[in-house]
């Protein structure tokens, strides 16, 4: 494997690594949205599978998948995130079948050639930080056999909650910030590009090696995490939002209008 070199996004997330879990992972909304992704992961992946996790962050999903009987190779561009993930594993699940590696998603091909996987997982927008998804799809295709599932969770381009929330606060720039398909994020002073591909663009980027099986909204009436304090004081409302989302999250007109969308793709061909 090549010497690890991070990206600007990786350096930016380094600065967030120690607070990421308290800000997002353990927030009421973070838990609510992750629960949906976990439900889908348990359906898509089988016990005994070896899963490649991209942009694993602090390792919350990798440890969950390992507890569900999978082996996970979990990668992230941020050394700080990888350190947090290793620390969490040492503390909470020392024997877990997970290996955390510092690796940019753009460099999957630098993993040892002998490493092949039964599925691929990416949660909560790490792939929105990658400009060339066609190259990622090609690199992944060489590590997977026909029928292997990919579960990839992206930030959407059109988030109904975000539009309403920022318009009501008189900030149209933020309300429509994702609409052009690209923004510049700024984390603790470090700027990096974030992309918001449409479902059609993702279908094209992953073809012909992968076909799109389904798209599911994650956080449709359940709001984005910056509304957490408002929701925390309204638990019954959150339950109602979760129930509505459960009913409508796969409806064609709605599945790309939440905070996130979860794409289930499948390797086709040899
Ligand atoms: C919003 S966090 C999500 C983390 C985790 N998947 C989760 O569900 O909590 C996005 C993650 O993507 C990682 N990331 C951003 N760009 C990346 C890249 N090019 N390659 C690998 N990881 C990247 C960041 O370091 C960060 O950990």
Can you describe this structure?
With 270 residues, the protein is an alpha/beta fold. It has one domain (8-154, 197-267): Vaccinia Virus protein VP39 (Rossmann fold, 3-Layer(aba) Sandwich). 37% of the residues lie in helices and 21% in strands. It is built from 11 helices and 9 strands. The chain has a 7-stranded mixed β-sheet, with helices on both faces. The chain has a two-stranded antiparallel sheet with strand order 6-7. Helix 6 links the parallel strand 4 (119-122) and strand 5 (149-155). Helix 6 (133-141) packs across helix 9. The model has no long low-confidence stretch (mean pLDDT 96). Bound molecules: S-adenosylmethionine (SAM). S-adenosylmethionine is lined by residues 7, 9-10, 13, 25, 55-57, 60-61, 76-78, 81, 104-106, 123-126, 129-130. InterPro entries: Methyltransf_25, SAM-dependent_MTases_sf. It holds the Pfam family Methyltransf_25.
């Amino acid at each position: 494997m090549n010497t690890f070199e991070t990206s600007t996004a990786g350096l930016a997330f380094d600065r967030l690594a120690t607070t990421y879990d308290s800000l997002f992972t353990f927030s009421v909304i973070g838990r609510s949205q992750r629960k949906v992704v976990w439900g889908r992961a348990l359906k898509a992946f089988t016990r005994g599978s070896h899963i490649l996790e991209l942009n694993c962050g602090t390792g919350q999903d990798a440890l969950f998948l390992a507890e569900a009987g999978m082996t996970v190779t979990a990668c992230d561009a941020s050394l700080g995130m990888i350190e947090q993930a290793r620390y969490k594993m040492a503390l909470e699940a020392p024997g877990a079948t997970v290996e955390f590696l510092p690796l940019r998603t753009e460099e999957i091909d630098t993993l040892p050639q002998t490493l092949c996987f039964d599925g691929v997982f990416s949660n909560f927008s790490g792939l929105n930080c990658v400009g060339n998804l066609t190259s990622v799809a090609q690199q992944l295709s060489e590590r997977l056999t026909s029928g292997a599932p990919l579960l990839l969770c992206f930030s959407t381009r059109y988030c109904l909650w975000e539009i309403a929330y920022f318009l009501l606060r008189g900030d149209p720039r933020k309300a429509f910030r994702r609409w052009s398909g690209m923004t510049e994020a700024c984390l603790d002073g470090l700027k990096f590009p974030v992309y918001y591909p449409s479902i059609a663009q993702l279908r094209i980027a992953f073809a012909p090696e992968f076909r799109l099986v389904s798209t599911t909204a994650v956080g449709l009436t359940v709001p984005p995490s910056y509304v957490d304090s408002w929701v925390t004081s309204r638990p019954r409302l959150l339950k109602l939002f979760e129930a509505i989302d459960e009913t409508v999250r796969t409806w064609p007109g709605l599945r790309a209008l939440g905070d996130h969308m979860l794409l289930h793709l499948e390797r086709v061909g040899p």
